[in-house]
Amino acid sequence: MIGRLNHVAIVVPDLDAAVKQYRDVLGADVSSPLDLPDHGVTTVFVNLPNTKIELLLPFGENSPIAKFLENNPSGGMHHVCYEVDDILVARDKLIAEGARVLGNGEPKTGAHGKPVLFLHPKDFSGTLVEIEQV
Length: 134
Ligand SMILES: CC[C@@H](C(=O)O)C(=O)SCCNC(=O)CCNC(=O)[C@H](O)C(C)(C)COP(=O)(O)OP(=O)(O)OC[C@H]1O[C@@H](n2cnc3c(N)ncnc32)[C@H](O)[C@@H]1OP(=O)(O)O
Ligand SMILES: [Co+2]
Known about the structure:
Blueprint: E1 5-11, H1 15-25, E2 29-30, E3 34-36, E4 41-47, E5 52-58, H2 66-71, E6 76-84, H3 87-96, E7 108-109, E8 115-119, E9 128-133
Parallel strand pairs: 1-5, 6-9
Antiparallel strand pairs: 1-6, 2-4, 3-4, 4-5, 7-8, 8-9
This protein binds ligand LP2KCY5N and cobalt (II) ion (CO).
C-alpha cells in the first residue's frame, strides 16, 4: 500500500539555525519557510536527491508539536511520511487493521497541497506516520 518515502520530519527549536546548518554546512537545497496555521507549524523543506527533510517549528498557540519540543528541547525526529495512491482506501484499510487515525479521520491539505493523514505512533513501533496521497 505505501510507496516512496516522501519526507522525514525533524522538529527544531530554532528554524534559522537549522536552515543554516542544512544549507551552509551540509550544502543542501533548502526552501523558504512557510507558515501553515491549519497544521500549527512552520515548515522548511530540504530537498535531497531521493527524498526530503521537513524541518518543523511550532506555529500558533495549539501546535501539535509543542509538547514534543517541550519533551525534546534540542529537537528530534518527529515523523516519517509515506506516499499512497488513494488516501481514503489506505485510511479505511488501516482502520480495519486496528490503526488509529489521528484528528477527525478526514484528510487535511498538507504542505505540498496534497491530502495527508497521521497515524498514532503507538501503533507503528513508536513512530508517528504521515501518509500523503500523491
Ligand atoms: C505541514 C503539514 C504536514 C505535512 O504536509 O508534512 C505535517 O507534517 S504537520 C506535522 C505536525 N502535525 C502533526 O504531528 C499531527 C499529528 N500529531 C498529533 O496529533 C500529535 O502530535 C500526537 C502524535 C497525537 C501527539 O500528541 P501530543 O499531545 O504531543 O502527545 P501525547 O502525550 O498525546 O502523546 C502520546 C504518546 O505518544 C508519544 N509521542 C508523541 N509524539 C510522538 C512522535 N512524534 N513520535 C513518537 N512518539 C510520540 C508521546 O511521547 C506519548 O508517549 P507516552 O509518554 O509513552 O504515553
Ligand atoms: Co510531514
